[in-house]
Amino acid sequence: MTSKKESIIQSIRSDIMGGLLKPGQRLPSIRKQSEKYDCSLNTIINVYQELETKNLIYSRPKSGYFVVAQEVLLPLIQMKRIDFASAAPDPSSISQSDFRQCMNKAMDLFEDSIFTYPDSQGLLSLRQEIVKLFQQQQVFASEQQIFVFSGAQQALHLLSGMPFPNGKTNILVEQPTYWGMLAALRAQKQTVIGIERTPDGIDWAALERHFQSNMIKFFYTIPRFHNPLGTSYTQEEKQRLAELAKTYDVYIVEDDYLADLETNSKADPIRAYHGASHVIYLRSFSKVMLPGLRLAAAAVPDSLIPLLHLHKQTADLSTSVLSQGVLEIYMKSGMYAHHAKQMKALYNHRIKTLGEISKRLLPRESLYSVQSSGGLFASIRLPGPNTEEMVKRLEIRGVDVVPSDQQFLSSFPKMNLLRLSIIRTDEQDMEEGIRIIAEELERAQPTSSSPKPFAWI
Question: Known SMART domains for this protein (predicted)?
């Protein structure tokens, strides 16, 4: 637990760095501060002395303490960042020389294709490689069922707006879910229904009611390493989803964006459970390769091929030949498998470390979905309604986090969650970052003089 003195120091420091106390402004007297923080005069004297040594305040004889000038504060504001926010790979974790080599070879091998418009469904030779990759996840599809997209976001956008063979029009999404999917749905002006997903899973009775009665075109789900929760469905739950989809003629868009990070060899996708007729299996390559290549692939049911081919062609004619060529060479050379193995080991170690540190430092009530293995994300919940204030205080202290607000439908009740990503944090950053979060969570709790009660949600 943070000492009283340290808690007051952090409170005043945050007010200064956040601009609530302006440069040159006089601080409250020692007596007033002792009353505000319900502590002794000596504690406030020690607080002011330590803030003075940190060059945050200065004293004037017989006048009190004042906030230092802005030009002195600027170097303090430009501190090292602890990044719990990013979802893009750290550039240092990817060998750019390997990609240059693949790019140069792609220029040679696919030179003729660069001057034409290739198949909008994707290069046949690449689709054949993707068939092999998907088989490793127990997703068995033919090259005719494989589509290559300019990133998973394009796939989600096209699927959201196009008609489906079942003739239904509404879309069901987990809450919370990937913000990019919600953005695609808003852009397409689709009718969207939300269903709550918690660390314990989903309400199966509610899901079946939606499938049965609400004209659901498709259900968008992230069964593995959910964003932002980080949790995964069990094998039994995936099988149940596949069966319900067939029973009620509802398609499932299975966003398996982190399949490469799976540590459990028996964790098969929904598509593997006799779901080939109703499951669109979507796979991104952004977390293992460079996100700027903008590549994703999907295995789709036969019933969807003609419609999707038409909509893909009208969207972009074809995905970048060079990007496809780089991915094909990267896969055929064994570089993809090697790099994916390295990333899986790195991220699994980091998420395990995050779980251990969080359980040691954070209040039990805040550990909403902190995992010990697999994936990139975990979520912690905040006390009270002031998520924005918490994010700002953490930012002031050099810790970047993402609130989950954008991952809920505007009509759906929101939880006060912060998403933590381990993709750009090492062990030292995690320890320091979680310690700061713990201090701010403690600070958010009421003092004896607080006018409003506090309750964990």
Answer: HTH_GNTR
Q: Which residue has the tokens 């090292």?
A: 80
Please name the helix (run of DSSP H) or strand (run of DSSP E) that holds residue 32, with its range, or none.
Answer: helix 30-36
Strand segments, DSSP code E, in 329-434 are: 377-381, 399-400, 402-403, 417-421
Mean pLDDT for 348-356 is 96
Instruction: Give tens-digit pLDDT for 241-261.
Output: 999 999 999 999 999 999 999
Instruction: Tell me the C-alpha distance between 116 and 188, whole Å.
Output: 30
Residue burial 28-64, b: 16+ Cβ < 10 Å; e: rest: eebeebbeebebeeebbeebbebbeeeebbeeeeeee
Q: Where are the alpha helices (DSSP H) in 250-296?
A: none
Q: Which residues contact 143 (CB under 8 A, 6 or more apart)?
A: 124, 127, 128, 131
Report the DSSP pairing between strands 417-421 and 377-381.
antiparallel
Domains, the chain, ordered by start: 4-77 (1.10.10.10), 82-91+337-444 (3.90.1150.10), 96-333 (3.40.640.10)
3-class state of residue 90 by DSSP: coil
CA distance 420 to 350: 12
Highest mean pLDDT (candidates 147-151, 326-330, 438-442): 147-151
